[in-house]
User: Fold this.
Amino acid sequence: MKRIILSLFFIAAIGTLSAQTLKVAAAANLRYVLEEIKKQYEAENTGAKVEITFGSSGTLTQQILNGAGFELFLAADTDFPKKIAEGGFAAGEVTTYIYGKLALWSLTTDVSNGLETVTLPSVKKIAIANPKGAPYGESAVELLKNQKLYDKISDKIVWGENIGQAAQFAFSGNAELGFIALSLALAPDMQDKGKYYIFPEEICPPLEQAGVLIKGSEKNPAAAKFLQYITSSQCDPVWIKYGYGLVKK
Assistant:
């Protein structure tokens, strides 16, 4: 009887380990695409469970450096993952997993003329993510400055904590325009509800997005497996659906 009980206990323990939840910190621009990939991953891996916390890359970096219990960090640039590595919190190499694109989005305004739209008299508020913690916000500010437009429209800017909040400002009508990730413009909540403009790569290069395994993730093999999975050919169609550029394999 004791042997049976011990065997059942051992089987239960193995089951618990195999179903260990993977905790991922991810940039806000990944909300929709990563939720879709997560469902696909969990469907293909029996018992797998992925828990994702979305936020600005800067905020998530600070949380990780303060000891937050994440096992994988997927940022919106390469600099923030490098800070994790430099701080001694990485358990592997910083890995580029995708390339994102910046877009101009509006619920009501015609944005087909691109950057010229920001100077329209009818545009009173422009939503941009805080460049200090959000790479897409930094890209928007850099674009405006390079095109000599930032000083002309700086008093119109409303800052979002992350790219998701900037998109919400534009979607709710609290801002006539929003500099957002193309992936959010193509998301179910916003697609076909407004108009978007994709900036040419010559003036706004794609954002190289990188991830890194966090120290302690060695105890959960799912962390490295999931990082590898998101760059596999199985996920390519999902990334493309949301307007991302793939990493050459």
